[in-house]
Amino acid sequence: MIVLNKHQIVTEQFPNGETKVKDFDQLILKNNLIEFTYREDGDLIRLLFVKKRLDEVPTESCRLLIRYMPYSRMDRKIEGDLFTLKYVSEFINSLQFDAVSVVEPHSNVTLELLANSVGIYPALDWLPQLMEKLDFSESDRIVFPDKGAAARYINSGYENSCVFEKKRNPQTGRIEGMELKAGDIPLGAKCIIVDDLCSAGGTFLWAGKILKEMGASAVYLLVTHCESRIFKGNLLDDDSPITHVFTTNSMMDTKHPKINYINLTTESYV
């Protein structure tokens, strides 16, 4: 989905699958902001068409807000697989935006590959509000599922945090174990697991079970990006250790009793 200056660009599809974009000359300003929400690969071609149309008009600037950077998990060359994040970044760079803002990039590699880019981390803003809503005390804990998440949110401003370490099968990439490497879980503690991305939710399900076994009274998940695959796992089951999921609509907006969507307002970050 493409939003230009707060208005969604209207697109259709020809019978053969080609994309038709309705002209939007009335939406073009001197300084333009494109909000890019990736749902499928066709959104990349829509982004191309919109930016090329803008290039035909004299403007002063065009900025891009990427709500979720596609292919961001493929952030290195792995034997047998393509370094697709590099290629997608090169495609976006070829469109020559004046500035690019990426919501919760999965790693710094995204920002290294994208020209004129900065990362914005709304979870750091939402976390204090969620802690207040849940009536957090010194006996409650912020939990990072791995070292990457801990490094990403090191400025959370909350000292009582815990860090897990995951053990993966090197061949399949599947998690085979998790261990609490830093921090402690007081009996009855409320816990908020914080990370950038949830797919089927296996990591958080595993962490939640361990936290409950260690004495946590409730486990919540704050994750910026959430794929629709969450409905194919067991994270949202009635007997799941996860009480509630807080996320944005950067990847989906399907309603569920256990999911609460947080509004990501453009004005706050761009």
Automatic annotation (TrEMBL):
<protein>
    <submittedName>
        <fullName>Phosphoribosyltransferase</fullName>
    </submittedName>
</protein>
<keyword id="KW-0328">Glycosyltransferase</keyword>
<dbReference type="InterPro" id="IPR005946">
    <property type="entry name" value="Rib-P_diPkinase"/>
</dbReference>
<dbReference type="GO" id="GO:0016757">
    <property type="term" value="F:glycosyltransferase activity"/>
</dbReference>
<dbReference type="GO" id="GO:0005737">
    <property type="term" value="C:cytoplasm"/>
</dbReference>
<dbReference type="GO" id="GO:0006164">
    <property type="term" value="P:purine nucleotide biosynthetic process"/>
</dbReference>
<dbReference type="GO" id="GO:0006015">
    <property type="term" value="P:5-phosphoribose 1-diphosphate biosynthetic process"/>
</dbReference>
<dbReference type="InterPro" id="IPR029057">
    <property type="entry name" value="PRTase-like"/>
</dbReference>
<dbReference type="GO" id="GO:0004749">
    <property type="term" value="F:ribose phosphate diphosphokinase activity"/>
</dbReference>
<dbReference type="Pfam" id="PF14572">
    <property type="entry name" value="Pribosyl_synth"/>
</dbReference>
<dbReference type="GO" id="GO:0002189">
    <property type="term" value="C:ribose phosphate diphosphokinase complex"/>
</dbReference>
<dbReference type="GO" id="GO:0000287">
    <property type="term" value="F:magnesium ion binding"/>
</dbReference>
<keyword id="KW-0808">Transferase</keyword>
<dbReference type="InterPro" id="IPR000836">
    <property type="entry name" value="PRTase_dom"/>
</dbReference>
